[in-house]
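Anyone have tokens for DUF998 domain-containing protein? Sequence:
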Amino acid sequence: MSDTSESDKSDPHVMSFYRVRQALGVVALILPPALIVGGMGLEGSLRDSVSNFFFSPLREMFTGSLAAIGVFLISYKGYPRRSDETFSDQVLASVAGISALLVAFFPSLADCIPPEGMAHCVPPAETVTQKLIGVSASSWVHNLSAVVFFLCLVIFCLVQFPKTESRVRPYIYKACGYGILVALAGIAGAFAMARWGGAETFVNVHNLIFWGEAAGIWIFALAWLTKGKADQAALALLRRAVSPEK
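Reply: yep, here.
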């Protein structure tokens, strides 16, 4: 049984709703590959974390993508709150969206990468938000907002999204929710290894925090593409390409 009814397909408002979800998933899907290709091409290496691309030539890619995700989420209406729910889709999405904007515009502590031919590097200039609340406070805002953002996604995947008549999609959502939790645990473990476990070089050389964050973002993308029925949209596009209407 299709998860999208024929009446939904003929309703432009419903289809627009799906396209917003798809756009949200696409932005998240392409962010890590863009940073990987850009980082290797422009700097010859990856940064230690996704957040540290704020201090790279790819700053606009990082902040622009997060800002787009934040605006999408804040504008996301979702379903009205049910009697058995503590909060609605819209409240959860708004919290996640605000968190994404805070991650984008309140940078964490920067990696100090020395320019070519120099033994020591000059720390990057402070941003407006760092000047307003301080570098350390900005880092705290950034890190806490990132945690809140991912936890909101976990709630979406484990609690909100599975409330569907589809037989298959709830399993995908739940797998995404647990996947994000595993990614968060991996990030926390890598951070602990670098900070207190004496394995900072190992963590940095293998970019463990970056890959943990990238995995979380990719899983987030999969969840929203599934919620936006991107699979059905792709199949419909393929059918039109193979058998165009005369």
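Confidence is low (pLDDT under 50) at residues 1-14.
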